[in-house]
Amino acid sequence: MARVERAVVIGGGIGGLTAASALHRRGIRVTVLERAASLAPVGAAISLAPNGLRALDLIGVGDAVRALAAFQGDGGVRAPDGRWLVRSSAAAASERFGGPLVLLARTTLVDHLAATLPPDAVRTAVDARVLDPGDPADPGRPARVGTPDGELTADLVVAADGIRSAVRSTLFPSHPGPAYAGFTTWRVLVPVPGAVFASHETWGPGRIWGTHPLQDGRVYAYAAARTPAGGRAPDDEKAELLRLYGDWHHPVPAVLAAVRPEDVLRHDVHHLARPLTALHRGRVALVGDAAHAMPPNLGQGGNQAIEDAVVLAHHRDDLTAYTAARLPRTTAIARQAVRAARLDMMTNRAGIALRDHALAAVSRAAPGLLLRTFDGIADWRPPRPPYASPQTTPGDG
Length: 397
Fold this sequence. Notes:
Blueprint (H helix, E strand, L loop, with lengths): L5 E5 L3 H11 L4 E5 L11 E4 L1 H8 L4 H5 L7 E5 L5 E6 H8 L4 E4 H9 L7 E2 L5 E4 L10 E5 L2 E5 L1 E4 L6 H6 L7 E13 L8 E5 L2 E7 L4 E9 L10 H9 L6 H7 L6 E7 L8 E2 L2 E3 L2 H4 L8 H14 L4 H26 L4 H17 L32
Parallel strand pairs: 1-2, 1-11, 2-7, 4-13, 11-18
Antiparallel strand pairs: 3-6, 4-5, 8-9, 9-10, 12-15, 12-16, 13-14, 14-15, 17-18
């Protein structure tokens, strides 16, 4: 593929903005096309693990995001009655994986990413589509992107247009697209005055609840429950949360008391159950949910999008190398996320009792053992200095 000098990014979410920033830092002229009227993201908060933070270091915002870390001391997994099944230490996780876990509002991260780009790089309210993916072997055939204002040509197109990616459908028309993962989620981000608690996730029968403090004083809470696709509460989603979680341990009732019905976001969870055969075609590369949408149970969706972005910038002149670097890793993590969803959202009561007993026993006997779940994920390092590991060779991702 010829040297990339001009890139068009379709989608102004976290993956698209990170890719745009990483390409811009390499002297490439970048245009971001976002269909929405603004860059305001969908969703409440995002969890960034050390792997994602190391990737953000390459665009100069890693330390600013680390400064927002709110997790201190212990946290873990609880039962609905409040019993601790697993205790975890933020310090132990940071020591094992070389950095903290940071939870922050998505709007905050988007603002940091957008600030790394020239003011005229982002165009909102633009519905873009790929007209021709181009031919990397033919300098006279760039990729062509259609917009209501006319066509754009580019040496590289980054498709970061989400789980319902129109670009993915254009490039891989035989792929079945996203499948329902079997559960829906609710998310809220609200101030909860006086609530003091350790960060935790609680596992019930076919349901989970997570409550986490943010540095700005707000609380991020999420819930998930197995339910048929397309469901909605008969009254409002706060009332639904009260029905499902209102009698769970502190601070769940306090958080729900602080929530207004309009604060609650509800979305069914979909994922790409069948991996793509490649993450590129022609001069077009897919990143984030467009490439490998996964259940949120490992908290890696956003982190993998950020990884994609910096690895793509590294392999910008060779998209075959980008696919080789990213497809095996993201496929494995997506499958692990599916397995995690099966474990933490079990419905069989005998199985739940066995699971909870095993988790508690392992947590007591070897407190750090469960951190190994994230070995090979959170300890990932980008393929370029300053964070390339001794085992990483040029071209690896």
